[in-house]
Structures are given as structure tokens and as C-alpha cells.
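This section describes the prediction task in plain terms. A model, or a person checking by hand, is given the sequence of a single protein chain and must write out its three-dimensional structure as a string of C-alpha cells. No templates, partner chains or ligands are provided. The sample shown here is typical of the held-out split.
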Amino acid sequence: MDRMEVTETFAGISLPGHLHTQESLGFAVTFPFRPTDVVIATYPKSGEGRRGEGA
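The expected answer:
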């Protein structure tokens, strides 16, 4: 079966199977953060950029 057709459910949330497996989601939950780690979270870029234009 193609992973594009799979939906993984983890902690009650449905996620696309082509991006995540139960193994990768389990790793994310048990990842050992250190007190000095910095996590940067942001929204993904969307829309069209300024392709071909000089900045």
C-alpha cells in the first residue's frame, strides 16, 4: 500500500502517513530534550514568492 493513502492516528490526531509513521511519532514524544535546548517553531511558508526578481 502506498503511504500517500495511509492516515496515522496518534494521540487522537490524524496525520498524513506519507510524512509520519508510528515509529517517528513515538520518537518525537520520547525525544530527550536538554535544559539548554532551544526550540524554534514557526508557520510553514505558503503562497507565491518573488521568483525571478532581484532583491
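For orientation: Residues 1-32 form one domain.
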